[in-house]
C-alpha cells in the first residue's frame, strides 16, 4: 500500500459487498413507516423477476419482503427517500448543536457562516441522501454526531488554511464516516461487537463509494477516520506517512467530538484528549483546541471549586496504583503462553505505558512520589485534573472491551490468568470517576 493512497484496494471490486441485514432492515422499516421511501426504478430479484415498479411508494410490509429477497442490486440503489436529510436539514442540525453545546459553539466560533455555506453548497447524490436519512431514522445521535464531526473538521480545515476547493470531499466524508454502523447486527454476539466496531470505518467507506456513489478520495478519508498518527488507531493501524493530510483533520475531529460535547468538561476534556498521548495527532491541531480551551479557562477563572475536587487527589492516586499493578502484571508473564506474552507486551507498550507517561508529564507521578495529597488549589486546576482522569478512564474502558474481545477470539487468552487479572484491574479503574462512567462510542 503506498503512502499516498491508503485503502485504495478497498474500492476496486465491481460487485458491491454491502449486504442488507436485519439491523439495516430495521432502519429501512422506520423510514417506510413514515412514508419515506419510493422505488427509483423497476426492482428485480437476482433471477430477473420484477418485484416492484419504479416511482412507487414502499410501505413497511413491502420493504420487509424486499429486504429478504436476493435482489439484482442492493436495496439502497433501488430506493430514494421522499423527505431526505437535505442540506437545509443538515444546517438545522448544526445550528441546534451549537445552541445546545457551548463547547462546540466555542470551537467553531468565527467560522459558523463558512461552515453553513459549505453545507448549503454540497451536492448530495440521491444515494448519499438515503444513507444520511437512515442515520436520522435509526438514531438521531448518529446524525448529530456526523454533523458535529463534519463541522469540527471544516472549522479546523479553514483554520489551517485548506483551499476551499478541497473542503467538499472532507464534508462528504464527515457526513458519511459512520454509516457503516447501520450494517451492524441488531444484537451482535459478545465476540463480534468489538470486531465490528473496529471494522466500521472500512464498512462506512465501502458504503459511501459503492452505495453513496462517492469518489475513492472520499472513501479513503472515511477509511482513515479512526486511525492515529502513532499507529494506535484502527482498522489498519496506519501511521503518519500513510495518512493523507485531510484524513488527519477528519480523524482529529472524530477523536475530540464526543469529548467536546461532554456537558461537564467540554473544551477542557477535548484539549486533554488531544495532548494525552504524544504523537497521536498533529501538534498544530492539538494546539488549536488547547488555545480555545485556555481562552475558556481564562473566562471562567473565578468559578467556585467543584464538589468533586475534594476527592480528585485520592482518585488519581488510586488510578496510578492500578496502572502500576497493570505494568507489573504485563511485565511478568512467566507461565503464560507465547500468545499471551506477546499480547501482554503489546498492551503494555501501546495502552498502559502511554497513560503512565501522561500521568508523569502532568506531574501526577512526581506528586505521588513526594507524598503530596494533590489537592487542587483552584477551580481551574480541579477541572484540569478531572478532565485528565475522565479521559484516561474512558480510554481504559475501551481497552477493557478490546481485551474481552481478544479473550473471545483467542483460546490462549481465554484461559490466560494474566488477561483475567488485567480485566479485574480495569474494572476497578472504572469506579474512579465521580459519576457513572459513560460508555465510549
Average pLDDT, all residues: 86
CATH architecture of the largest domain: Orthogonal Bundle
Q: What is the string of helix and strand elements?
A: HEEEHEHHHHHHHHHHHHHHHHH
CATH topology of the largest domain: Hypothetical protein af1432
Query: Number of folding domains?
Result: 3
Number of helices: 19
Strand content: under 5%
Strand tally: 4
Largest sheet: 2 strands, antiparallel
**Nearest-angstrom radius of gyration?**
23 Å
Poorly predicted tracts of residues: 1-17, 435-441
Distance between termini?
A: 29 Å
**What class would the helix/strand composition place it in?**
mainly alpha
The CATH homologous superfamily name of the largest domain equals: Hypothetical protein af1432
Class of the largest domain, according to the CATH hierarchy? Answer: Mainly Alpha
Biggest sheet strand order reads 1-4
The share of residues in helices is 55-70%
Overall geometry: globular
Describe this structure in words.
With 441 residues, the chain is mainly alpha-helical. It folds into three domains: 22-81; 87-298, Orthogonal Bundle (Hypothetical protein af1432); 310-429, no CATH class. The protein contains 19 helices and four strands. The strands form two sheets. The protein has a two-stranded antiparallel sheet. A two-stranded antiparallel sheet has the order 2-3. Strand 2 (43-44) and strand 3 (50-52) form a beta hairpin. Helix 9 (190-211) crosses helix 17.
